[in-house]
Amino acid sequence: MKLKNWFWAILGLVFLGIRFLASTFPEKTEQVYSEGIFLWIRKIIDQTLGILPFPSVYFFWLSVILVLIYFFIRLRKKDSLRNKLGYTFRAILNGTGALVFFFLILWGFNYQRVPLTKKLRLDIRPLELEEVKREIFETEMEMNRLRPQIHSDTSAFEIPWDYPVLETEVRKELEEHSHLLRLTYTGRPRTKQVPPKGLMRRLGILGIYWPFTGESYIDAALHPLEKPFTIAHELSHSLGVTDEGEANFVAWVIGSESQNPHLNYTSQLRLLLYLMRDFSRMDPEGYAEWVKTLNRGIVNDILSIRKNADRYPPISLEFSRAANNVFLKTQGVKEGVKSYQQMPMLVHAWRKRN
Ligand SMILES: [Zn+2]
């Protein structure tokens, strides 16, 4: 057995070992990887793949196809079934090893860094009904202040953005405010729109950070009121934030600090939707009363977002239902008691501290 033939499998295994070590030393991982190696990876990717006008994920799939072609050509040359099976087994292990290695070195070690909540010393705990109501009140006030700045009447806001301008805007805000979250901004991370329109939506995702190309992708089918927040969420992954709840929180902070009323409004809107879910579950009657008093413009915006989402129903309802169940279970939602949603808990802790 030649060691050379197992190169990627061994490398993957070694990196899984390093990953285990890293999880035992979050502070060291933060210092060596997240605030060191990763920042260099960020710079290199952003100055190469990042400047391309199309999604670099095409290169990723092209490489996968080329590797598969190479594999089948070599497989055909093997004479016996035994040799063919042996070669296939080795190729699968090497392929997996290569994926593990690239995933970890390009982004994945950020999972082992110090969590943002710990770095910011945020006191995270489930919210009582009164706290949820207070958060709603504050968010609603802010939205009532912002909405007239972006739209003159109570009809839904449906004006599409020029995408490159929007992406640049959001990135600028992230660069300006990331220090508030003790995140290091470097390079010029990208979030690109990936065709075909509606595909990701049907798969049940709004956007995704792709570690292998170091850039993120969003569905072009998102509503104009969903895009700014979703871009901010994806860009926060580019700064090495791995947790979904933390990425939402970063996007909200960036939006609410922004002088741009569009960004700010769409961030508050996303938060409001989370809070409304809590409120309606914790106090259905109180919620029904409150919703009647909600600004007509905000109501129309929410309905417009929902109408747009309905145009791209998920491919498998079964799947999304199952995914939802898992989500509810892992979040530990208890019927009608407290809010366990991470985004409202984080925002509450942040507002209290500031
Ligand atoms: Zn995400």
Rg, alpha carbons: 23 Å
Order of helices and strands: HHHHHHHEHEEHHHHHHH
Termini separation: 62 Å
User: How would you characterize the largest beta sheet?
Assistant: 3 strands, mixed
Low-confidence stretches: 326-336
Structural class: mainly alpha
Features of this protein?
globular; mainly alpha; 354 residues; 3 strands; single chain; 2 domains; binds zinc ion
Can you summarize this structure?
The chain is mainly alpha-helical and 354 residues long. It has helices at residues 7-24, 26-47, 57-77, 81-106, 116-119, 129-150, 163-177, 199-202, 227-238, 244-257, 261-282, 284-293, 296-310, 317-331, 342-353, and strands spanning 191-194, 207-210, 215-219. The chain has two domains: 3-114, no CATH class; 117-353, no CATH class.
